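This section describes the prediction task in plain terms. A model, or a person checking by hand, is given the sequence of a single protein chain and must write out its three-dimensional structure as a string of tokens. No templates, partner chains or ligands are provided. The sample shown here is typical of the held-out split.
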Amino acid sequence: MPKKTKYRKSHKGNRGGKAMRGNVLSFGSFGIKSLTAHWVTSRQIEAARRVMTRYVQRGGKLWIRIFPDKPVTAKGGEMPMGKGKGSVDHYVAVVKPGVIMFEMEGVTEKQAQKAMELAMYKLPVKCKFITKI
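The expected answer:
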């Protein structure tokens, strides 16, 4: 969740097109690159982070390149139509194809690949493991 936002609620927006920025490895030698577009929730990001750090036994360094800054609203279950937009329920990060979501450094390639494969199961996007050449 962001510390401060200009507006409390936002429009859905569009998820079309490929990523123009955030599409190259900047910090680590290994990374997870998205192949499809989706909203990734803060819970999914945290679940992926946990499984990666547990697998490498807190070795190496991990960078999270996406941040959930888009609010998603929800209404109650038996709410009638109308009555305005619902309250903010959770936050998501908009992920487009080509975005580097996680980066890792300080572990072997085999370790990083296995850790990131485990993390890919936690994410709603199709991903692939990439390395710096």
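For orientation: The beta strands are 30-34, 38-41, 61-64, 70-74, 87-95, 100-105, 127-131.
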